Amino acid sequence: MSIDIICMGEPLAEFNATRGDGGYQFGFGGDTSNAAVAAARQGASVAYVSAIGDDEPGHAFVALWAREGVDATHVRVDPQAPTGVYFVTHGKEGHVFSYLRAGSAASRLTPHDVPLDVIRRAKALHVSGISQAISTSACDAVFAATETARNAGVLVSYDSNLRLKLWPLTRARAVIHAAMACCDIARPGLDDARQLTGLAEPDAIVDFYLRLGAKIVALTLGREGAIVATQLERRLVPSISVNLVDATGAGDCFDGAFLAEYLNCGDPFKAGRYAAVAAALSTRGFGAVAPIPNRQEVEAALALETPSLPLSAGEAA
User: Which residues contact 165 (CB under 8 A, 6 or more apart)?
Assistant: First the structure.
């Protein structure tokens, strides 16, 4: 089977405080795994590269990927390290994450674990700042994967996904900027990008990533949607109004939906609108994976959606 999208990073078992009484609901997380599931639910053929522990969370992930049609052939089982875990709690300021991931199986990935021949045959590779933040060896593995993809003409998508619990801002800036300079599709979120670039205005942030070399920038703005830009044009892509329950993984859903639709239609603005709607729909339930919509749900919502809005000439790059 040919692969459209290869995602690489760390899966995390999720425990989500859905009831507010101290109880937690088990689910699945990990930004690039979430993106892989989102892309698969939009009809893309997807493979995942990672490592899991020989434990119940790891076994649950294998079953999840099988159900979702995500090829896990290149997920290594490490009998000496656990699958990472995180907890989600909810408050007035939104969701809060707590992690148990130090020494996880995925953090032990090295460049030798990267299936270079498989990456060369794919259409797109998706990685993130978290994929690199979990360890030095994993960071090197991501650079090996992106270099291989670029040399083979495979699209590289990179989500900044800044996690300051994993590394200091100075190192994060250096690594993420270097990685973004090697990508075709830059996927920053507004809050992360403000910290990484020191810029406040969304258009200035878009310009920053375009100057680094990205062909496409999709800057997510939360409830407001996203700005999608190329070197020649940019548009504000509005989201839709939903009854928000939990925004965990919404950006990851955007990533997977954007890549699947971009490979499907070749239009970054149409893909951005599609992804913004998919991400909004993914916030209607608890957890990162369970509420991710499929293509039929997104297309039904798109039928009622406002078209993307060209920005004024003064805002164009």
Answer: 99
Question: What's the token pair of residue 86?
Answer: 């995180």
The pLDDT tens digits of the residues spanning 69-109 come to 999 999 999 999 999 998 888 766 666 778 888 899 999 99
Q: Answer whether 0.70 is exceeded by the pTM.
A: yes
Of the CA atoms within 13 Å of residue 59, those in its CB half-sphere come to: 4
134 and 98 Cβ atoms separated by less than 8 Å: no
Residues labelled catalytic: 252
Domains of the chain and any CATH numbers = 5-315 (3.40.1190.20)
Residue 262: beta bridge partners?
A: none
> Vertex 248, ends 238 and 289: CA angle to 5°?
100
Distance (Å) of CA 304 to CA 45, 275, 279, 301: 27, 15, 16, 6
Parallel, antiparallel or unpaired: strands 94-100 and 84-91: antiparallel
Q: Select from 175, 154, 280, 287 the least CA-distant residue to 220.
A: 280
Phi-psi region of 30 (alpha: psi -120 to 50; beta: other; left: phi over 0): left
